[in-house]
Specification:
Order of helices and strands: EEEEEEHEHEHEHHEHEHEHHHHEEEEE
Largest sheet: 8 strands, mixed
Bound molecules: zinc ion
CATH superfamily of one domain: Metal-dependent hydrolases
Number of helices: 11
Radius of gyration: 20 Å
Distance between the termini: 28 Å
CATH topology of one domain: TIM Barrel
């Protein structure tokens, strides 16, 4: 008996397919089989009534930390995935070449949600920080070897371009090594934008089209994307023009309402929306997850379809998985987020303690991975 799941009565938003309206979704044996009004639901199928809800591809969090019990900041992937509509979490450098086997065995394989990874250019990952503080931990050859051996899970290379990653070495060399590995492997680099060194300009200049700047909505004057008068920096425009992607990576230190408003005023929206979930960012007052991060951008005026794209199809494309996840087109993995819109006013805090009252927000109802509903803890 094939396992069959039908999701009926919801409003489907699937930007990759150009769909935004009421329709049904049928998943057979873990893959999307059909999308359309009045699809024939086979006898014995499980039917979910999504009336009044949004039905989107499963959310893809490009910046998560889920190497629980090995890196101090990490959380367990499944409980968060189940309560946030997030079918795929891409770990952002918690594991490095020396610690990746454990990540694969103890996190990726047993998880019911999809877990992928950016491999840290530091072989110790984020087991201890500063992870790039000693030159011996930055090993491009070993990083490339582990990437090649784990291409089914590793989708890019992570480097934290930040003084708290580099320790006393104070150099941009790890960024260059990460880009060298990315070029050799044909994969993107995700660069964490942090306090210099390296400077914002030195780090950004090294990135190629397809590479990703995360934590890009920060508030610190040295690292923010905008000039003092609010205009988007020329280097940022130039980087976007050559295809560099700008990602949220909200976390507990990287999203600023003021900067976000300035960027919105100039029509500069994120390419991808991610959370930087870790042990402190998931706690109040920030309490971040994918729907909460998407809500912030929606509140600022980013159209809902674009918000969904930045959390699904564009994230999938950024990691080269656009043919498998991030869309409800037939043949894609049966990953779905069911969300509802809550119109109770709520105060949402940025990473700097500033608050805004939001009058509508996205709330996850359920997370479906490969046609199976993830049970909430
Ligand atoms: Zn992070």
């Amino acid at each position: 008996m094939p396992s069959t799941l039908a999701i009926r009565g919801g409003t489907v938003i699937d930007p990759a397919s150009g769909l935004h309206g009421p329709t049904d979704v049928l998943i057979v044996d873990g893959k999307v089989a059909a999308v359309g009004e009045g699809i024939v639901v086979p006898a014995g199928a499980t039917v979910i009534d999504a009336s009044g809800c949004l039905v989107t591809p499963g959310l893809i969090d490009l910046h998560a930390h889920v190497y629980a019990s090995v890196t101090p900041l990490s959380i367990d992937p499944d409980p968060l995935a189940a309560r946030s509509g997030t079918s795929t979490q891409v770990d952002a450098g918690s594991a490095g070449a020396a610690t990746f086997d454990g990540f694969r065995r103890f996190i990726v394989e047993p998880s019911r949600s999809r877990v992928l990874a950016f491999l840290n250019i530091s072989i110790i990952g984020l087991a201890a920080m500063p992870e790039c503080g000693y030159a011996r931990f930055v090993d491009a050859n070993e990083t490339l070897r582990v990437v090649e051996a784990n291409r089914d899970v590793i989708v890019g290379v992570k480097v934290r371009a930040s003084r708290n990653a580099l320790g006393e070495d104070n150099t941009a060399e790890p960024v260059r090594h990460a880009v060298a590995v990315g070029r050799a492997a044909g994969l993107p680099v995700m660069m964490h934008l942090g306090d210099p060194p390296p400077t914002f300009e030195d780090g950004l200049a090294q990135l190629r089209g397809g590479d990703i700047v995360t934590h890009a909505w920060k508030g610190q004057p040295i690292t923010r994307l905008v000039e003092r008068d609010g205009r988007v920096k020329a280097e940022v425009r130039a980087a976007r023009d050559r295809g560099v992607l700008f990602d949220i990576g909200h976390g507990s230190g990287s999203f600023n309402w003021g900067v976000a408003r300035q960027l919105a005023d100039h029509g500069f929206w994120p390419d991808t929306i991610s959370t930087d979930v870790h042990t402190s960012s998931i706690k109040a007052p920030v309490s971040i997850d994918m729907p909460a991060t998407m809500t912030r951008l929606w509140h600022l005026g980013m159209p809902l379809g674009d918000v969904v794209a930045a959390a699904t199809s564009r994230a999938a494309t950024a990691i080269g998985w656009g043919d498998r996840i991030g869309s409800l087109a037939p043949g894609h993995c049966g990953d779905v987020a069911i969300l509802r819109i809550d119109e109770t006013p709520i105060v949402l805090t940025d990473s700097y303690g500033a608050a805004e009252t939001v009058t509508r927000r996205l709330v996850a109802v359920s997370t479906i991975v490969g046609g199976r509903v993830l049970a909430r803890a």
